[in-house]
Amino acid sequence: MAKIQLLDEDVINKIAAGEVVERPASIVKELLENSIDAGATNILVEIRKSGKNFIRISDNGLGMDKEDANHSIIRHATSKIRNSEDLFNINSLGFRGEALASIAAVSQMSIVTKVDGALEGYNLVCEGGLVVSSGPIASDVGTTIEVNNLFFNTPVRKKFLKTDAVELRHIIDIVTNYALLNPQIAIKLNHENHNLIQTPAIAAMRENVAAIYGYAIAKDLLEVDFERDGVEVSGLISKPYDVRNDTKQQVLFVNERWVKNSKLSKAIYDGYHSMLFTQKHPVFVLHVKIDPNKVDVNVHPQKHEIKIEQEELVLDVVCKAVNLTLENNNLIPVVDPSFDNDMMGVVSSKYVFDKSEQKTLEVSESDVSYGARGGVVGSSVVDALYDLPKVEEPGSTGGVFYGSEDVGLSDSDVSSGEVGVEEEVVDDSGRLPEMQIFGQIHKTFFLAQVEGAALVIDQHAAHERVMYEKFMKQYERSEVVKQRLLSSVIVDFALSQVGIVKENLREINQFGFELEHFGDNSFSLKTIPAIFGRLQPRETLMILIDEIETRGNKIDKIKEEIIMRMACRSAVMAGDELTVAWITRILSDLNKTKHPFTCPHGRPTMIKMTIDELEKKFRRK
Ligand code: ADP
Ligand code: MG
């Protein structure tokens, strides 16, 4: 056995650096935190080659004098806490005093800094943790830290870095999170001379979110503002149907610190009840404020894990905050308890998508496919509906998008003739039984009668199925029918999306959106897919961009999901009032689909109550 020896400081620093500096994004995080702690109102993050070779963060914060600058690169040297009691009452982002030492140990780092009132600034240059030069320098008040050649002296770590795209994504995420947390600070992220994120210094959180996630998302978010038992919850959350496939747009801050905490996240999901579709994720930017005495942030060197005292209470308040926000915005299903839940309860509920309900209520195809075919909902009805009235367009973004008539529903302009796809879709035999339609209940369901049973049909699910199959057909044949907008519409993307849009213009076009670059992050939208024109074409376009951004641009693999979301977004919603003519039209279209009994997500479009069941319920049998 060899003799035990104390490691020298250089090795200790490299080992410790591994915990703090995992990748370029960790450096960006630590330096951003320092700038924020220094009271900066303007922070510029510049990177090259995804941060692997060059990271520079400049702030207009307090700066450091010569002595502090020299101390700042020493491990466990900090201005933020003094003793172990302070550890449990931390009001700054940093406190461990090891970030600069760790970064300096594995890179070539330079600091230029000046405090207010000083005649000149101070410059410190280090390499592998050792100071190689220092001296006065002309500078503005504030601090600029430049990190070159990360891991130049630890080649193995360098090898573990991911591709440029992945490392850049991590940096974008970090800057995004801190920008979301700090609306009052103007933050800019510049990669190879392109601005990827740029937020102005503003007070309003929604505007800040708009600058980062884009206006389309920000404008529909609901505001959370709730306090109970000393726990404050504030921020923005999405409506249950404005969801994503991933958790990328979810940010959680506890006492001004960005944290990852699965229990808190779960509490937020719980707040949504069963209103979230499975495997869908809400957008949220939420701040939780708790007495700093009750949070331990000293769990991990990267400081994004926390331990909370009275955790149950905090989770409960967070859940309640989300829940009440949704409830106050009339987004919670109200089930009348006086109804028997296993059947009629569903009829009075706005959402029938609860998994448990689905099981008992699902209609198997054989259940419904009896009786005469075609019939009332057959194609003859379509002829009779040639002159449909205009549908109400709740939440419509204005006439400009609806150049021609009723794009979504009155699809006579989309079908047959010009495209020649409809012929094949029309299957005169149809899959639905003959039915008599009575109308709409709760502006959410259609009520109809078939032989021996009553049908309750979910208008959104049914229309979603129709839209999905129609568009899929057009798309697969590269025959998406476009509608030219009367005057083109300018769409602003988040800066991080501009590259994605430019690279995928052709693919985006295949979905019916003709875009032209208009300058900076603006594009002008010339056409929209005719079928989806009914509601907010901008939003439908955003769904497409969002999918490409988050799931990669192998369109063929993700087209289903994209079209599903577009169909969902543009289908009639619960709450849309529809005339019997419209109802008939939707059902007639549903009759022509391949899978009329489920929506594209697999939930039922209709449930059935047989006369037999009804008679039993009323104790007639
Ligand atoms: P910590 O942030 O945990 O204190 P760091 O190693 O990140 O440890 O920083 C060490 C010290 O250097 C800080 O406590 C602070 O006093 C000073 N410092 C670092 N960055 C800045 C900055 N951008 N502006 C002013 N002071 C800074
Ligand atoms: Mg720090």
Give a verbal description of the structure:
By secondary structure, the chain is α+β, with helices and mostly antiparallel strands. The chain folds into three domains: 9-199, 2-Layer Sandwich (Heat Shock Protein 90); 205-327, Ribosomal Protein S5, domain 2 (2-Layer Sandwich); 351-612, MutL, C-terminal domain, dimerisation subdomain (formyl-coa transferase, domain 3), CATH 3.30.1540.20. Helix content is 34%, strand content 21%. It is built from 22 helices and 22 strands. The chain has an eight-stranded mixed sheet with strand order 5-4-3-6-2-1-7-8. Strands 9-10-13-11-12 form a five-stranded mixed sheet, with helices on both faces. A hairpin with a 2-residue loop joins strand 4 and strand 5 (130-137). The longest helix has 18 residues, at 164-181. It is elongated, with a radius of gyration of 29 Å. The N and C termini lie far apart (88 Å). 42% of the residues are buried. The structure holds adenosine-5'-diphosphate (ADP) and magnesium ion (MG). The site of adenosine-5'-diphosphate has 23 residues, from helix 2, helix 3 and helix 4.
How do the strands and helices of this protein lay out in sequence?
Layout: H1 9-20, H2 24-37, E1 42-48, E2 54-59, H3 66-72, H4 99-105, E3 108-114, E4 121-127, E5 130-137, E6 142-148, H5 155-160, H6 164-181, E7 186-191, E8 194-199, H7 205-213, H8 215-218, E9 222-228, E10 231-237, E11 250-254, E12 257-258, H9 262-271, E13 284-289, E14 295-296, E15 307-308, H10 311-328, H11 344-347, H12 355-361, H13 365-368, H14 379-384, H15 422-425, E16 436-441, E17 445-450, E18 453-458, H16 459-476, E19 482-492, H17 495-503, H18 505-510, E20 514-519, E21 522-529, H19 537-551, H20 555-570, H21 580-591, E22 606-610, H22 611-617
Parallel strand pairs: 1-7, 11-13
Antiparallel strand pairs: 1-2, 2-6, 3-4, 3-6, 4-5, 7-8, 9-10, 10-13, 11-12, 14-15, 16-17, 17-18, 18-22, 19-21, 20-21
This protein binds adenosine-5'-diphosphate and magnesium ion.
